[in-house]
Amino acid sequence: MEGTDPARPGRARRWLAWTLTFALAIGTTTGLAFFDAGLGIVAGVLALVLAYWLLLRRMALGGRAVARTTRRLFAGGWALLVVGALGAAYAGMLVLGRQGTGRVDYQDEQTGTHGTRYLQCYVIKPDGTDGELRTTGACPASGGTRIAMVYLPHDSGDVARPLLGTKRRLLPRAAVWAVADLLGLAALAAAARTSGTPEAAAP
């Protein structure tokens, strides 16, 4: 019956919706995950729901049903980006960080949000600033021991916490980020293409 199918949004509106979708996906699963993988993963999952209902279904499709192919590509691509968040910090430090030799400072027992107690290791970075390691757990050696690490120089606020080891050791996890993001973004691009076809109106 005439008027039952929502009007198809214009090209500019669809382009804007998909631009925001890509920005939201990269910003959470790579941007936030560079500083905190857990935060990036949680934000990425929440952003998936937001992007699907508001950006894809409402803004890009004007309330029309999302085709099965588009839906699968969208969800699959975003899932890959969430997996890639696990390696975002390693990729970022591989590019932005500097390799050097610092010292183990001390370890401290802390309490997590759910009452779980864990050990956190603190180090003196090669530039003389101090901070906690990105990973939790006991220090790998006693206080004062010299140890290789990758760090951001002059990061006195400890915004990007250092990683132990050399840049070579970061490569495997950085590769996880690269492959997952490449495939994830390709899937989202395919979802964008399929959403713009007439067939996409079918549920």
Automatic annotation (TrEMBL):
Q: Where are the transmembrane segments?
A: 15-35, 41-61, 73-96
Q: Which UniProt keywords apply?
A: Membrane, Transmembrane, Transmembrane helix
Q: Which domain of life is it from?
A: Bacteria
Q: State the protein's name.
A: DUF3592 domain-containing protein
Organism encoding this protein: Actinomadura verrucosospora
